[in-house]
Amino acid sequence: MDEGVYYPLLKNYSYFMPTRIVFGVNSISRLKEELKPFAFKQALLLTGRTVCHTEACAAVRETLSSLGKSVEFTSISPEPDVSLLANLSEEVRRNPPDIVVGLGGGSTMDMAKVASLVAANEKEPLKYFKGEPVARKGPPIVTIPTISGTGSEVTPISILVEKTAKLALRHHALYPSLAIIDPTLSVTAPPTATASAGMDALCHAVESIMSVDSNPITSSLAFEAIDLVDECLEKAYCNGSDIEARNGLALASALAGMAFANAGLCIAHGIAYTYAMRCGLPHGTSVSVAEPYAVEFNAPAIPEKMKIIAAGLGIDTEGLTSSEAGEAAAMRMLDITGTLGLPMSLEDLELGEEDLEPMVDDLLKNYNRFIVKNPRKPSREDLLFLYRNMLEGY
Ligand SMILES: [Fe+2]
């Protein structure tokens, strides 16, 4: 960076983060000690169909059983939907837990938060995703990520799919009480999953800085996260057992989560939601297609922030205009997605010109929550222009 302090030092703001984080290689071995203070009688362990057969899951299962009763719900799948939510609620009502542990990826941790909510609030859970006020905080939530990127381990947010729309529930009661972040649990994650989740962390960090609600705390966290992903993602993709790179990504995921839980996300996440389900894309992959174009679009509106983002991506910004810094940042992101073998344009997703207007309409109708955080307010024409850029790619 070529000039003084970027942060608006006279800005007033708040920051909240109640989750205890236990981080590092083999930190899973501390689970028993960390769980004892909760003095639970009935635990609910949430996992997916693959994770439930792993050694890590066996260890968590054993630890829970040594401290109290424990039941397991192993049916969490990516993009949890309304029917999964109904099954999970039934399980929670059958055996009301006084602690909920989510071991897995973002979907599993998201559903652990919902299970806690259901345990303390009697209405049909879908209603809470549609604005019903949450009356009570549920039992403590423990998150143990097995892949790095979603940030769900430290956020108070849960995502649910209803038909083709993604609903978000955000409430302070959904903050995990404890996150055990052990990078060794992600070593067996396949390269494609590593790539998608890692890009999600990068996008969370970039959008946290761009957000109109960023502050010096969230931007500091996000800058470190960008730097870590820039350094570690390609390494972890090429060599899954590179434990240093896995550590870097695990930290980036948490830092970016701590940033966006307070700053919010902006337009690229909203854009991604307009084609992710239809194209069957993992979440991070869908956002990474949109992010470089969103960064370039926003650059003129946020000159100082754009230089921070570019610097995090290893770019020397001296003498660059904000648009040049934005373009350089976009190019570096595309460079990373190229290395990871991810799609880089809407044409790569087999979308065409005829799809653009319906996607713009969908974005404006269903995902305004991201547009309000975006630093440059887009008109419908701006959005069509942005989508058209994404269609052809660079
Ligand atoms: Fe995301």
Please render the helix and strand layout as text.
Blueprint: E1 20-23, H1 31-35, E2 42-48, H2 55-67, E3 69-76, H3 82-94, E4 99-104, H4 106-120, H5 125-129, E5 141-145, E6 157-162, E7 165-170, E8 178-181, H6 191-210, H7 216-238, H8 243-263, H9 267-273, H10 276-279, H11 283-298, H12 303-312, H13 322-339, H14 353-366, H15 368-371, H16 380-392
Helix pairs in contact: 3-4, 6-7, 6-8, 6-11, 7-8, 7-12, 9-11, 11-13, 11-16, 12-13, 14-16
The structure holds fe (ii) ion (FE2).
The site of fe (ii) ion (FE2) has 5 residues, from helix 6 and helix 11.
Write structural notes for this entry.
The structure is a single chain. By secondary structure, the chain is of the alpha/beta class. It folds into two domains: 20-186, Rossmann fold (3-Layer(aba) Sandwich), CATH 3.40.50; 191-392, Dehydroquinate synthase-like, alpha domain, CATH 1.20.1090. 51% of the residues lie in helices and 12% in strands. The chain has 16 helices and eight strands. The chain has helices spanning 31-35, 55-67, 82-94, 106-120, 125-129, 191-210, 216-238, 243-263, 267-273, 276-279, 283-298, 303-312, 322-339, 353-366, 368-371, 380-392; strands at 20-23, 42-48, 69-76, 99-104, 141-145, 157-162, 165-170, 178-181. It has a six-stranded parallel β-sheet with strand order 1-8-5-4-2-3, with helices on both faces. Helix 6 runs parallel beside helix 11. The longest helix is centred in the middle third of the chain and has 23 residues, at 216-238. The protein is globular and about 60 Å long. The model has no long low-confidence stretch (mean pLDDT 96). The structure holds fe (ii) ion. Fe (ii) ion binds next to helix 6 and helix 11.
